[in-house]
């Protein structure tokens, strides 16, 4: 198997592109795919400052490396969710990556700020752990980005993640979620910072290969809270289709973003937002002006984050 670009020995085959690449051409290919996604969806401009959501896993670290290679000014934000050994190890991978590349990594400790970790918050609020995690992450990404004057928050959602989410939303006809699922969620006047997903043209096999081939160490284990997550079943279903017909995921998600999504516009209701009376984050006016994150917190707590 030869590299499509330089004809040297290939180290990876990507069936949906009907191509194989050597190490260097593969890394270049990944950079090009991210640059293409950014341009195609008007995600951000060259001079903008981007806050990268870092979990310590392959997607977020590959994303941070690629955005930096492409010349974007970036800082990372890692949120310690207090999930035992998983959090300890992922925290270390995030810090090691930032130190090796001399990049700024901001760190939030959920237990310190909120008084609960993900499991504790789930027990006391009777919500699933992933819901507590999602509320906490959304809160902190937006708060740090808006207070730090960042132009956009970049997350490591890849082609496999986004196509599985789309499949799940369509299977349940959650049309308001379908209408809101985009490669870019624009900033709002109410205080939400723009969110972008630059990895939507790369599958998770490619982000893993990117890390291995460029010497990035990352946490390989899945978060223990992910067990039983229906998203994993949708990913598995799409893998069967992808094996049978390479390119299915790209066609499904790419087609949706370029001409399917607009057909769902208007399916999501416009929600009037106000400032949370505790933390000033944007929150729906109907929720007694207290955001979902503050409602999870014991009342004596207040917030703060550190640079690490
Ligand atoms: S699996 Fe759930 S708890 Fe774990 S990081 Fe993902 S959303 Fe958070
Ligand atoms: Zn090559
Ligand atoms: Zn709040």
Short key terms for the protein model shown above:
11 strands; about 15% strand; two-stranded antiparallel sheet; globular; 7-stranded mixed β-sheet; about 300 residues; alpha/beta; disordered C terminus; binds zinc ion; Rossmann fold; binds iron/sulfur cluster
| Total beta strands | 11
Helix content: 40-55%
**Secondary-structure content class:** alpha/beta
What is the CATH topology assignment?
Rossmann fold
Shape: globular
Ions, cofactors and other ligands present here are: iron/sulfur cluster, zinc ion
CATH architecture: 3-Layer(aba) Sandwich
Domain module count: 1
Distance between the termini: 44 Å
How can the largest sheet be summarized? 7 strands, mixed
Strand content: 5-15%
Mean pLDDT: 93
Walkthrough of the structure:
This protein is α/β, with parallel strands linked by helices and about 300 residues long. The protein has one domain: Rossmann fold. About 45% of the residues lie in helices and about 15% in strands. The strands form three sheets. The chain has a seven-stranded mixed sheet, with helices on both faces. Helix 1 packs across helix 9, helix 5 packs across helix 6 and helix 7 crosses helix 11. It is globular. The C terminus is likely disordered. The structure holds iron/sulfur cluster and zinc ion (2 copies). The site of one zinc ion (ZN) has 8 residues, from helix 1.
